[in-house]
Amino acid sequence: MSTNRAVAAVAVDNVSKSFRVPAERVHTLKETALHPLRRTTYEEFVALKGISFDVAHGEFLGIVGRNGSGKSTLLKCMAGIYRVDTGGIYVDGRLSAFIELGVGFNPDLPARDNVLINGTMLGLSPREARRRYDSVIDFAELREFEQLKIKNYSSGMLVRLAFAVMIHVDAEILLVDEVLAVGDAAFQQKCFDEFYRLKDENRTVILVTHDMGAVERFCDRAVLFDHGDMVSEGDPHRVGVEYLELNFGKPKPIVAAEGADGIDADRSGVGGAEIVEAWFEDQHGARASMLELEHGCRFAARVRFSEAIDHPVFGVTLENAAHDNVFSASTQWQEAETGHFAAGEEAIFRVQFINVLAPGRYDATPVVSQRGSGTAVMDRRERFISTVVSGTHASGALLELPYAAGVERTTVQPTAEIES
Predict the structure, then answer these.
(1) CB of 155 within 8 A of CB of 132?
(2) What is the pTM of this model?
């Protein structure tokens, strides 16, 4: 554990939690009456397996993991919604939770009543809850809907109201689940601005999210969950990379299926050369299944020639998951003299570049051709191998180009008043 339990804001000590899942559900009273002696069998689902870690006062902790890994279950245990089976959770300070849409709200009451009730439940006096109501409703941008029963609210409106209540109760410890993803872009940015304020005020925040950019931007530390186990803890960037590896796995070469005529369906060419294998290399030249953003890397392919060829042309194209062509390279464009290769010889073709590709999966299509006008393709392996680009920042663009931005102040001369 990374912090001293005596001064921890939250201490999770060997917590386990499981659920009984009925193998067969009884939905109606008639079914129960017709089969009164039938016993329902259950399967046990273990959501958390002996989890232990501490969160220091003022620390911003990120909890990441795939769906079903136990993140939200742990947050509900911290909030007291679930009771743990074994172990304990110790909280030092007033706690406010933002976990599920509508939790703690009465759908038949309007926003004002729900804000006052929730504020009081989270530790405010009734007078203080009333005093802060206008600030809450304005932050949520729901002034025109404050008299509407919240059962008629959209999911985005519920998110805005719940988040606004949470940040206005002055809790020392805040639990925030992935439900922020429901809000629109403008409200998410407003929430991120609040996260910066909470960090400046040294509040303790535990954030469950799939957004690795948010983890690296805000979190001091991160933990990674997988199938109920805490498999990693530490630097947010490193944990984010491990999260991406869990999601994408280790890419394997794509093996083309054979068509009815015995020819590979994802392969074409007139022959004379064969692309035997392909791989990616990291900045140190080692074979890598994952490439880091903003680092040097290489694509490489091994080619075997079955006949003598003079100055063959080597190339490669990278496509993203949407099948957009994001990068192409060829020795022909560089007018490179690649040499003479006799039958039986092999060559390794490499392309070195700085990785500015946006995080995600990419498929590589290598090709070797005969040189000359009317170039004949000897071998082309469609989407022969794939790789994953890791990075905790994603702008949504195809590329993450390095850049420098600046602001220059200009002096505007005041416009002279026109005399009437």
Answers:
(1) no
(2) 0.63
* CA atoms 165, 167, 172, 176: torsion sign: positive
pLDDT at 258: 40
Q: What is the pLDDT of residue 3?
A: 45
How high is the mean pLDDT in each 10-residue block of the chain (420 residues)?
A: 64 93 68 66 87 94 91 91 92 85 80 89 87 91 90 86 86 82 70 86 91 83 94 88 70 39 63 93 91 91 94 92 88 82 94 90 92 74 90 73 81 61
Contact 275, 301 (CB under 8 A): yes
Dist. CA 406–CA 36, nearest whole Å: 75
Q: For residue 314, give the nearest of 269, 371, 352, 256 by alpha carbon.
A: 371
Return the domain boundaries, the chain.
5-248, 267-390
Which residues are CB-neighbours of 30 under 8 A, at least 6 positions away?
none
**What are the tokens at 387?**
């790789």
Answer CATH for 267-390 from 1.10.287.3510, 3.40.640.10, 3.30.565.10, 2.70.50.60 = 2.70.50.60
Predicted confidence at residue 54, as pLDDT, reads: 95
List, as one string, the DSSP characters of 137-180.
HHHTT-GGGTTSBGGGS-HHHHHHHHHHHHHTS--SEEEE-GGG
Say which CATH class 5-248 falls into: alpha beta
Q: Is 240:247 a contact under the CB 8 Å cutoff?
A: no
In this structure, the chain runs to a length of: 420
* Residue 317 and residue 369 in contact, taking contact as beta carbons nearer than 8 Å: no
Q: At what angle do helices 155-167 and 111-121 cross, to 10 degrees?
A: 40
**DSSP states of 254-317:** PPPPB-TTSSBTTEE--SSEEEEEEEEE-TTS-B-SEEETTSEEEEEEEEEESS-EES-EEEEE
Compute the distance between CA of residue 369 and CA of residue 124 in angstroms, rounded to an integer: 74
C-alpha to C-alpha distance for 272 and 268, rounded to whole angstroms: 12
Report how far apart the first and last C-alpha atoms of the chain are (Å, whole number).
77
Whole-number pLDDT of residue 416 = 58
